């Protein structure tokens, strides 16, 4: 009987340790952004912000906004570690011939940051996403 109680206590201890370990695991960037629903809201805010900026609006005149929205959601999902498939062009190919200046790029980034703030994404999470996107700068900016 004593062995049975010890055995049960040992199993309970192991289960408690395992559940504590699971509870303390950090969430992924994808989860911190609110998964697909959160990324969709961020994207929608971002598109509204872009649509109100006359400095860069001309870059989107020939863009199918519904497709652009879907590709951006896919892209942010993949970049943040979600299990999505990005079906769009490479960043380089998507931006060829658009003549995106440093000022244009900075404006777009500022609108993304604002969209993240509108969804109450914490600073550390915003910075983590921007760090993932930053290497794409060379493929987007006009050379």
TrEMBL record:
Binding residues annotated for heme, in chain numbering: 95
Organism listed in the record: Shewanella livingstonensis
Signal peptide residue numbers: 1-24
InterPro entries noted in UniProt: Globin-like_sf, Globin/Proto, Hemoglobin_trunc
Record-given protein name: Group 1 truncated hemoglobin
Superkingdom of the organism of origin: Bacteria
Keyword match Ion transport: no
Entry keywords, A to Z: Heme, Iron, Metal-binding, Signal, Transport
Entry GO MF terms: heme binding; metal ion binding; oxygen binding
